[in-house]
Amino acid sequence: MVLPLIPMALGLSQFVPAIARWLGGEQAESVASRVVDTAKQVAGVDDPLDAMHLLGENATLVANFQREIIKMEAEFELQVLQDRQNARERDIAFAQVGRKNLRADIRDRCIKKFNI
User: Fold this and answer.
1) In angstroms, rounded to a whole number, what is the distance separating the alpha carbons of residues 100 and 12?
2) What is the share, in percent, of the chain residues with pLDDT greater than 70?
3) Model confidence over 69-82: pLDDT tens digits?
4) What is the DSSP annotation of 5-23?
5) Domain tally for the chain?
6) Which of 93, 10, 91 is nearest to 52 (CA)?
7) Domain that holds residue 39
8) H/E stretch holding 67
9) Once rounded to an integer, what is the mean pLDDT over residues 31-43?
């Protein structure tokens, strides 16, 4: 029987609550797959339910799982930062050729007007 990945990853969030916030949007299935695969690898089993049970019984496995998830979280954060940097570089390139970036211009005007 194939278990749905997202509910399985949500079940694993009992060990690392941060997992739950990653399971929305376009990347939810991919993230869930990585989380479940990580749990199976840490527990040394092929079945995600077995991995969850083993994690529930062994604090050392939980610590190892948490460590791996923290590494994954750092990778996700780095991807977000790189995406923002790419957006900044695009904005700079627009300005250099005299084009306007309506999204950024509106944001800047709102910040000035509403003092936020």
Assistant:
1) 46
2) 85
3) 999 989 888 887 77
4) HHHHHHHHTTT-THHHHHS
5) 1
6) 10
7) 5-114
8) helix 59-96
9) 95
pLDDT in tens, 43-59: 999 999 999 999 999 99
Q: How many whole angstroms separate alpha carbon 35 and alpha carbon 10?
A: 9
Which residues make Cβ contacts (< 8 Å) with residue 41, sequence separation at least 6? 68
C-beta atoms surrounding 22 within 10 Å: 20
- Side chain identity, residue 108: D
Structural tokens at position 22: 């990653």
Tell me how far apart the alpha carbons of residues 48 and 40 are, in angstroms, rounded to a whole number: 6
Distance of CA 26 to the CA centre of its chain: 11
Provide the residue type at 71 as one letter. Answer: K
pLDDT for residue 32 is more than 80: yes
Q: How confident is the model at residue 1, as a pLDDT?
A: 40
The token duo for 10 is 């949500």
Cα separation of 43 and 97, whole Å? 54
CA angle, 68 then 73 then 77, to 5°: 150
